[in-house]
Design a protein that fits this description.
Layout lengths: L2 H8 L1 H8 L15 E4 L5 E7 L4 E6 L4 E5 L5 E6 L9 E4 L4 E6 L18 E6 L5 E6 L12 E6 L5 E5 L4 E5 L5 E6 L10 E7 L3 E6 L5 E5 L7 E2 L9 E6 L5 E5 L9 E6 L8 E7 L7 E4 L2 E6 L2 H5 L7 E7 L2 E2 L1
Length: 331
Amino acid sequence: MSGKLMKLLLLGSLVVLVLGVLPPVLAQDDMMGDIVVEDPGLYPEGVEYDADGGRFLITSLARGTVTEVFDDGTFNEFIADDDIISAIGIQIDAEGGRILVAGPDPGAGAATSEATMDVSAMLGIYDLESGERLHLVDCGALLPEGAPHFANDIAVDGDGNAYLTDSYSPVIYKVDTDGNAEIFLQDDTFTGEGFSLNGIDYHPDGYLLAVTLNTGNVYKIPLDSPQDFTQVEMEAPLLGADGINLTADGDLIVNVGTFAGEDPPMIVRLSSDDDWASASVTGSVETEFNVTTTALRDGEVYALFGHLELLFGGDPSRETFEITHIAFDDM
């Protein structure tokens, strides 16, 4: 296991500080297993819903693949790219007919190696209909050799530009529709122990929202002046913040994982009435397992239970994984 991922596991103890200030939560016992994927050793991390295709697309941290999953639990391997060691974040660009996949090497994939572990920051771009590779972009090459990398999550703006977070270096990369990459934002604010920059999404008013796992902060980043980013004011940070999703109503769904044994992880809904200068928790749900990412389907939230705590805990034998509808307890 990567030494930095060991540090990530310790963040679970910090999440207790957050849970004490969040509103009451809804137990999740009656929500498990809406769709069960029986594929031993898959260990999915990212999920998106393809409305036109009527399918979920999930990434595999263990295999570096993308699998299409249907409502009855049937599935097919859709993308297998030898240059993606572990597939993490996934973003569908429906207008552009593309799938974008973040490809780091956290040391738990079947193809991991000393040469790539903690230094891989690939962005794979594929045709949404065929799965054919369109571009493979080595974003890590934009930083000096030897810099640590973990390509994590992706957002796509209204012009088709992609934005990729790096959890080990304080950078967000920008990749245009032709596969050309540049550093969009680099700032020491996004440094610290373990994972920093994590989930990211695009707001149609012309900015990005991004979270940091180790500090639990949310940031608003203007597309036209990223250096003028601001921290969203909240009552308390969401330590352990992972994947995020901006809903059509303008709320932000945030997965708060513990990666620890005792305290339950959560999914929270943040709302803002001042264009994300500040935000507050308006809904939450307690989950039995960690949720790295969620997908939006017809305005509803679906959570992916990838059971990655087992994989990183040395037990790669899990056979089933769930995509589950989430109903929030409004506050």
